[in-house]
Amino acid sequence: MTLDPEALPDLDVVIVNWNGGGLLRACLASLAAATDAGRVQVTVVDNASADESLRDLPALPRPLRLIENADNRGFGRACNQGAAGGRGPVILFLNPDAQVAPDALALARAALLADPGSGVVGARLIDADGRTARSCARAPTSGGMLGRALALDRVGFVPPHFLADWDHAEDRAVDQVMGAFLMIRRDLFERLGGFDPRFFVYYEDVDLCTRVRAAGFSVRHLAGPTARHLGQGTTRAVRARRLFYILRSAVLYAGKHHGRAAALALLAASFAAQVPLRLAQALARRSLSEAAEILRAAALLAAATPAILAGLRTGARRSAG
Fold it and tell me: Helix axis angle, 275-284 relative to 288-320, nearest 10°?
């Protein structure tokens, strides 16, 4: 069968890359080997990578759409950018450190479209050691977020964010699937306005799944489709900024979904508990470099606090209006 590149694809795959290196090439190679690769349009949005990750990319049945940003626009904003140019009825957001099994795309797409009430599906993620990752999560409540910031989940006072007590071995409706492999109906994604660009990275997938469920659709984990996922593939080298964005995004999520008071409490807990606890753990391991990264993350969060507070005040006025 001759491929018609002008025919509408069944699926758009959007990959946001930032210094992905060989991970991106391995990801694209897995997509090229997919059983339905000819019906898949792949878009790579590169957020101003400084490495050579865009060199010698594997060939795909359909020409790769490549968007090269002059600066790092963040994960959610770049995802929206890549999705906007697609034409398929289904979109898969895939991390560059993920490699899909040959049948994963077809299985996930079929499951998503088989149920009109299904809005998002995620695949079973396999970690670097070949184990199933406990990647699905609970919707963050204000009490749960604050409790985890105070490390109360470690003593069982609040449940952990991820569903660590479930083996992910069967299909199941969940609150959230991880953005490493997140497949969504295009019309629903567009109706919701895509990812919230205020989340530079982290919590953008949590926020989207929360809004999908609020719109009356389900979010489902699928055990059949699988993808190998390294995890933190492109952020592990920037520990300070990674921790900063985790803390910042949690506060933004709390403010958006639970109100200004919850966000302020979480921000205070970040400085009073999260940073000191992480610092104590690093020092106990005698890792001075890790301790320095934690202090840099705290400094970044302190510098961002005025803008965070201004955003919370704006959000409160909008709610009142």
Answer: 170
Report the 10 Å Cβ neighbour count for 201: 24
How do residues 249-280 score in pLDDT, each as one tens digit?
999 999 999 999 999 999 999 999 999 999 99
Q: Are residues 256 and 219 in the same domain?
A: no
Give me the mean pLDDT over the 212-235 stretch. Answer: 89
What's the CA gap between 208 and 194, in Å, rounded?
8
Same-domain check for residues 125 and 261: no
Higher pLDDT: 318 or 247? It is: 247
Largest CA distance in the chain: 63
pLDDT at 201 (0 to 100): 94
Helix runs in the chain, H state only: 22-32, 75-84, 104-114, 142-149, 186-191, 204-214, 239-258, 260-269, 275-284, 288-320
Containing structural domain, residue 204: 11-133+168-229
CB 79 within 8 A of CB 46: no
- Are the beta carbons of 226 and 101 closer than 8 angstroms? yes
Please state whether the predicted TM-score (pTM) of the whole model is above 0.85.
yes
| Strands 65-69 vs 90-94: parallel, antiparallel or unpaired | unpaired
